Amino acid sequence: MTTKRTMTLNLSAQEMAVLERLASEKGVSKTGLVRQALRLYQSVTERLDRGDKLFVEDAEKEEKAEIMVL
């Protein structure tokens, strides 16, 4: 069984509004959205650490833009 731990996260009003809106749009809890975001960030970080590049593609314009993560 996975042991869960609790943490306090302090967000600005704007950050909380974004979190609440995205969670509502996706039909997940705020906690679920943060977990998804962590998994995505972990995946992106691992790929960038290997030397991979991250792109976003606009299919209509057939344009690609590289995303730079600090």
Walk me through what this model shows.
The structure is a single chain. Helix content is 49%, strand content 11%. It is mainly α. The chain has one domain (13-66). The chain has a two-stranded antiparallel ribbon. The protein is extended, with a radius of gyration of 16 Å. The model has no long low-confidence stretch (mean pLDDT 92).
Runs in which pLDDT lies below 50 for 5 or more consecutive residues are: none
* Main β-sheet, spatial strand arrangement: 1-2
Protein structure class = mainly alpha
Q: Can you give the helix content as a percent range?
A: 40-55%
Query: What is the first-to-last residue Cα distance?
Result: 35 Å
The count of domains is: 1
For the sheet with most strands, the description reads: 2 strands, antiparallel
Shape: extended
Mean pLDDT across residues = 92
SSE order: HHEE
Strand segment count: 2
| Annotation field: number of helices | 2
- Radius of gyration, taken over Cα atoms and rounded to an integer in Å: 16 Å
**What portion of the residues fall into strands of 2 or more residues?**
5-15%
Main attributes?
single chain, 2 strands, 70 residues, two-stranded antiparallel sheet
Topology at a glance:
Layout: H1 13-26, H2 30-49, E1 55-58, E2 63-66
Helix pairs in contact: 1-2
